[in-house]
Amino acid sequence: AMVTGGDITPEYARDDYNLNLSGDALRKAFQDLINEANEVVKRGLPVKIYFLKREEALKIPGIVKLAEREPPPGDEWRIVEIEGIDVQADGGPHVANTREIGEVVFMKSESKGKDKKRVYYTVKP
């Protein structure tokens, strides 16, 4: 699924995905995602941040995970990588190690229309 939006507040975060699921299947998919995230957190993996020229970054499969959006402009992209887990162009703040996140807690999921699903979650230290 591709990310279609998101928001982070001091109390919770939400992510939107283009996903064709509903009801229990949707809740299970998001709960599985949260469980997988918690496994990554527990492993205490380093989060690397570096810059690549646009043409080099575009050679990396899945480097841009935003649906219905053009890749970011600019000749140089900021890349965030959790080795063996994920690598993507991202300009937001990040931890240096996944263990800094704490426990990711599922709050709720909802449908925002056909193939538009939202998950809310928070973290506990």
Strand order, biggest sheet? 1-2-7-6
How many independent structural domains? Answer: 2
Query: What class, by secondary structure content?
Result: alpha+beta
Secondary-structure element sequence?
Answer: EEHEHEEEE
Number of strands: 7
The CATH architecture of the largest domain would be 2-Layer Sandwich
- Would you state the CATH class of the largest domain? Alpha Beta
Task: Describe what this molecule looks like in 3D.
The chain has 125 residues and is an alpha+beta fold. It folds into 2 domains: 1-43 and 99-124, Threonyl-trna Synthetase, Chain A, domain 2 (Threonyl-tRNA Synthetase, Chain A, domain 2, 2-Layer Sandwich); 45-97, Replication Terminator Protein, Chain A, domain 2, CATH 3.30.54.20. 20% of the residues lie in helices and 38% in strands. It contains 2 helices and 7 strands, in the order ββαβαββββ. A hairpin with a 3-residue loop joins strand 4 (76-82) and strand 5 (86-89). The longest helix has 21 residues, at 23-43. The radius of gyration is 15 Å and the shape is globular. The two termini are 28 Å apart.
Could you write a compact summary of the structure shown?
This protein is an alpha+beta fold and 125 residues long. It is built from two helices and seven strands; from the N terminus they run ββαβαββββ.
